[in-house]
Amino acid sequence: MSNTNTSHRFSTRLSFLAAGIAMSAWAPLVPYAKERLRLDPAELGMLLLCLGIGSLLAMPATGALTSRFGCRPVILVSGAITCAVLPFLAIAPTPLMLALTLFLFGAAIGTLDVAMNVQAVIVEKNHGGAMMSGFHGLFSVGGFAGAGGMALMLWAGVGTLAAALVATGVTAAALVAAAPHLLREPPPSEGDSRMFAVPRGAVAIIGALCFACFMAEGAVLDWSALLLTSGAGLSADQGGLGYAAFAIAMTAGRFTGDKIVSRFGGRRVLLAGGLCAAAGFFTAVLAPTPLVALLGFVLIGLGASNIVPILFTAAGSQKDMPAGLAVGAISTIGYTGILAGPALIGFVAHASSLQAAFAGLGCAMLLVAASSRSRIAAGA
C-alpha cells in the first residue's frame, strides 16, 4: 500500500508539473501574438477573455466527469488536447483563429487543473498529512521551466513554433510518465451528489480572496511580459523573465510553506504574504530599472506562494458548507480568476494604463492581507 501511495503521489506531482509547463509556455508568446496580429491592449484583452470563457464552460463539468470516470482519463484526455492546441498559439494567423485556439486551450487547461486537484485532494487524504503546497510547488516548477525555457529559446533565435513544439513535447512526456498511476477509481462520495455549489457565508469570502490571488497570478502570466517590455525597457525576447522570476520565487515559497505555516500560523503567513505581494506589484509598477522590476516579481511570487493553501485550509475548517463542496466551489472561483481575470486587466489598461492595472492588483493584495484579521482565517 505504501508503494502504491508513493506512486500516486509521484503521478500527481507530474500532472502538476505538466500543467505548469503548458500554462506558462503561453506567457512569452503574448508579445509575439500582439505584434503579429497588431493588437491593442483592449483587443488582446478580448482574446484572453476567450481563454477564460473556454475554462468557465469546461470546469463545472470536470467534477462530474471525474466522479463518473475517475481522474486518470480526464487528466489524460484534457492533457492531450492541451498538447494538441499549444503549438497553434504560436502561429494563429488571424485574431479569430487565435480566439478559437485560446478558447480550446482554456477549456483543456481548466479541465486538467480541476481534475489534477481532485486527484491531489484524494491522495493527500490517503496520505494523512499536508501535501498540497508540495503539489502546487511542482506547478510552480513547471511555470519556471515553461516560461524560462521558452524565453531562453526565443532569446537564442529559435522560432516561436519550434519553441512551442519543444514545450509541447516536454508536457506530453510528463503526462505519459504520470499515466500508469493516476487514479482510475472515481472519488468517494461524501454524501452529496453535487460537484459544485454556490458558495455562501465564509466560503463566499474565501472564494473572493482566491479569485483575487489567482487573478494576480494570471495577470503575471499574461501581462508581465508586456509590462516589462513597454515600461521597464526589456526587449521582446526577454519579456518572459518576469514570469520566470515570479515562478522561481513561488516555487521556493511553496516548497517551504508547510514548515513556515506550522511555525508561525496561518494568520501571520496570510498577513505577511499579502503585504509582500502588494509590495511586489507596486515595485514592478514604479521600478526605475529592469532589475528592480524583476525584483518586484520575486516579491509577488514569495508573497502569493502560500496564500491559496492557507485559504484552502480555512475552507476545510469553516462550518457554513460541507468541506468537500466548499473546496470545490473555491477551486472553481479561483481558477476563474487565473483564466478570466487577465481579460479585466486588458480593459483597465485600455481605459488607463497597464501600470494602473498592476497597481490595482497591489491594492487587492492589501485586502487579502487585511482578511487575516477576519474569522475566515481562524481555521487556517
UniProtKB/TrEMBL annotation:
<feature type="transmembrane region" description="Helical">
    <location>
        <begin position="161"/>
        <end position="183"/>
    </location>
</feature>
<feature type="transmembrane region" description="Helical">
    <location>
        <begin position="324"/>
        <end position="345"/>
    </location>
</feature>
<dbReference type="InterPro" id="IPR051788">
    <property type="entry name" value="MFS_Transporter"/>
</dbReference>
<feature type="transmembrane region" description="Helical">
    <location>
        <begin position="293"/>
        <end position="312"/>
    </location>
</feature>
<protein>
    <submittedName>
        <fullName>Fucose permease</fullName>
    </submittedName>
</protein>
<dbReference type="InterPro" id="IPR020846">
    <property type="entry name" value="MFS_dom"/>
</dbReference>
<dbReference type="GO" id="GO:0016020">
    <property type="term" value="C:membrane"/>
</dbReference>
<dbReference type="InterPro" id="IPR011701">
    <property type="entry name" value="MFS"/>
</dbReference>
<feature type="transmembrane region" description="Helical">
    <location>
        <begin position="74"/>
        <end position="92"/>
    </location>
</feature>
<dbReference type="GO" id="GO:0022857">
    <property type="term" value="F:transmembrane transporter activity"/>
</dbReference>
<keyword id="KW-1133">Transmembrane helix</keyword>
<feature type="transmembrane region" description="Helical">
    <location>
        <begin position="135"/>
        <end position="155"/>
    </location>
</feature>
<feature type="transmembrane region" description="Helical">
    <location>
        <begin position="351"/>
        <end position="370"/>
    </location>
</feature>
<feature type="transmembrane region" description="Helical">
    <location>
        <begin position="44"/>
        <end position="62"/>
    </location>
</feature>
<feature type="transmembrane region" description="Helical">
    <location>
        <begin position="269"/>
        <end position="287"/>
    </location>
</feature>
<feature type="transmembrane region" description="Helical">
    <location>
        <begin position="195"/>
        <end position="220"/>
    </location>
</feature>
<dbReference type="InterPro" id="IPR036259">
    <property type="entry name" value="MFS_trans_sf"/>
</dbReference>
<dbReference type="Pfam" id="PF07690">
    <property type="entry name" value="MFS_1"/>
</dbReference>
<feature type="domain" description="Major facilitator superfamily (MFS) profile">
    <location>
        <begin position="8"/>
        <end position="380"/>
    </location>
</feature>
<keyword id="KW-0812">Transmembrane</keyword>
<feature type="transmembrane region" description="Helical">
    <location>
        <begin position="98"/>
        <end position="123"/>
    </location>
</feature>
<feature type="transmembrane region" description="Helical">
    <location>
        <begin position="12"/>
        <end position="32"/>
    </location>
</feature>
<feature type="transmembrane region" description="Helical">
    <location>
        <begin position="240"/>
        <end position="257"/>
    </location>
</feature>
<keyword id="KW-0472">Membrane</keyword>
